[in-house]
Design goal:
The protein is an alpha/beta fold. The chain has 16 helices and five strands. The chain has helices at residues 2-15, 24-40, 99-113, 125-137, 147-159, 163-179, 202-215, 222-228, 235-258, 264-271, 279-296, 310-323, 338-341, 347-356, 359-370, 374-386, and strands at residues 48-56, 62-70, 87-94, 118-121, 142-145. It has a five-stranded mixed beta sheet, sandwiched between helices. A hairpin with a 5-residue loop joins strand 1 and strand 2 (62-70). Helix 2 packs across helix 14 (347-356), helix 5 packs antiparallel against helix 9 and helix 5 runs antiparallel to helix 11. It is globular.
Length: 387
C-alpha cells in the first residue's frame, strides 16, 4: 500500500499534476470500504456455487470464508475459475469450528444468495459435517470435494509408505543443504513444503527428471555428477512416480476447466490417452475415476459442477501477500480486503461502492468481525511490560 501511494505520487509528479495524492492509509481505507461493500451489497438469489474453506494464522481462531458465483455464470468448459469471477459471500472468525457451527454460518450465508445449488470444499472434518447438516435442510444442494485434495490423498496413499520416496526427498534435502551457501547454489532443487506436500510434488519430479537427462548425456557436467550421480538409483521409481503424477495432473487440469458431471469419467479416458502407463499409474487412475464418478453423480444431465477450490487457495495467498509481514501476526483488518481482491469492477462500480460505505462503517465491520486481535493483545502485553 505504501508502494501504491508512492507510485501515484511519482506518476503525478512526472505528469505535472498539482493535485493531492493519497497516503498509504487512504489506500488501506479504500480496500476496507470495497471489502465491506462486497460483504453487504445485494446479491442475486438462487443457483449459486459456493467455495468454502478455512484459513488460519497464529492464534486460536480460524477464518471461515465463503465465496462464489452464479453456477450458470461459471466459465466451465472455457477456462478455470479466476478471482475476478467470484464474489465474497460470507466471513466468520471461529474459535471453535465444529460441524454445528459451520452449519450455522452456511445458513447465514444463504440469507444473501439463497440456498446454493452447489458447495465445493476440501475434505476437512468440520466442513464436511457442517455441509451434511446443511444438506439435511436443503437436499437440493450438491457437495463436491476439491479434486486437488483428493488427488493429493491418492498420491499420499501410494507414496506415503514407500521408503524409496522418503529416501529420495531426504537425499535431495541433504544435497540442497550442502549446496545452498556455495558457488553451486544453482544446483539446489525445489523444496517440498511440509504442509500438503503431496499437492506440491510436481517441481521435485520435474527437477529430478531434468537432472537425470543431464546425467545421461555423453559428458555430464562434473558438478552434476558429483552431487546428483546417486539419482540414477531412482531411475525406475522416478519413471513410475512421474507417470502417476501425470495421471493426477491431467485429471486436475480437466476438472479445473470443465468441472465435474455425469460424463467426466469418460472424458478423462480421452485426456489420459497420451500417458505412458505403469502399474502405479493405472492404480491412481482407477482411484480418481471412482472419485469423479462419485462427485459427478450429483450433477443433473448436461450440468457441470465446480470440482476445484484452488482459486480460493490462491485468494488466501493474495491476501497474505497484501498483508506482508503482518500475515505472521494473526488476522488483521485487511481480512476484509478479500472482498476487494475478488470480482471485476468498473470505475463506476468502484466509485459507487466507495460512496456507499464510509470509513467508519468499514472500521466498525472489522471490529465486529475480528474482535480483539492477536496484535492488540500483543500491544497490551508489551505495553504492560514497559510500565
Amino acid at each position: 500500500m505504501r508502494g501504491a501511494a508512492a507510485g501515484l505520487h511519482l506518476t503525478a509528479a512526472r505528469l505535472g499534476f498539482e493535485v493531492a495524492m493519497p497516503s498509504f492509509s487512504a489506500v488501506r481505507s479504500w480496500l476496507l470500504r470495497l471489502g465491506c461493500h462486497a460483504l453487504t451489497c445485494a446479491l442475486p438469489s438462487g443457483g449459486w456455487v459456493w467455495l468454502v474453506d478455512h484459513t488460519v494464522q497464529i492464534g486460536a481462531c480460524k477464518l471461515l470464508v465463503i465465496v462464489g458465483c452464479l453456477l450458470k455464470e461459471a466459465p466451465l468448459g472455457e477456462r478455470p475459475l479466476r478471482q475476478s469471477d467470484l464474489h465474497l459471500v460470507h466471513l466468520s472468525l471461529m474459535e471453535h469450528s465444529t460441524k454445528e457451527a459451520v452449519a450455522v454460518e452456511l445458513e447465514r450465508a444463504a440469507l444473501r444468495t439463497g440456498v446454493p445449488r452447489q458447495i465445493a470444499s476440501d475434505q476437512g472434518t468440520d466442513l464436511n459435517g457442517g455441509v451434511k447438516l446443511f444438506q439435511q435442510q436443503h437436499a437440493e444442494t450438491a457437495h463436491v470435494h476439491d479434486l486437488a485434495h483428493q488427488a493429493a490423498n491418492v498420491l499420499k496413499q501410494c507414496w506415503g509408505k514407500d521408503e524409496r520416496w522418503s529416501a529420495l526427498v531426504a537425499r535431495l534435502a541433504q544435497t540442497g543443504a550442502k549446496l545452498r551457501q556455495t558457488r553451486e547454489a544453482h544446483l539446489v532443487g525445489p523444496t517440498i513444503r511440509p504442509k500438503a506436500r503431496f499437492m506440491n510434488v510436481g517441481p521435485t519430479l520435474r527437477f529430478a527428471g531434468r537432472v537425470l537427462k543431464l546425467l545421461d548425456t555423453p559428458t555430464p557436467p562434473a558438478r552434476t555428477e558429483e552431487h546428483y550421480g546417486w539419482l540414477r538409483e531412482y531411475r525406475e521409481a522416478l519413471t513410475s512416480w512421474t507417470s502417476e503424477h501425470r495421471v493426477a495432473e491431467t485429471a486436475l487440469r480437466h476438472v479445473r476447466t470443465h468441472g465435474v458431471g455425469q460424463n467426466t469419467a469418460l472424458a478423462l479416458e480421452t485426456a489420459w490417452s497420451q500417458i505412458e502407463w505403469t502399474p502405479g499409474a493405472r492404480d491412481v487412475a482407477a482411484r480418481l475415476r471412482a472419485a469423479v464418478r462419485t462427485e459427478g453423480a450429483q450433477a443433473k444431465a448436461g450440468e457441470a459442477l465446480v470440482g476445484s477450490t484452488e482459486v480460493l487457495e490462491s485468494t488466501f495467498g493474495t491476501l497474505k501477500r497484501l498483508e506482508g509481514s503482518y500475515a505472521g501476526d494473526g488476522f488483521t483488518g485487511l481480512t476484509l480486503a478479500l472482498g476487494a481482491i475478488l470480482g471485476d469492477r468498473s470505475e463506476t462500480q468502484v466509485r459507487e461502492a466507495l460512496e456507499s460505505v464510509p470509513k467508519k462503517e468499514a472500521e466498525s465491520r472489522v471490529k465486529r468481525l475480528l474482535g480483539i486481535t492477536v496484535q492488540m493483545f500483543r500491544r497490551v502485553f508489551v505495553g504492560s511490560a514497559k510500565t
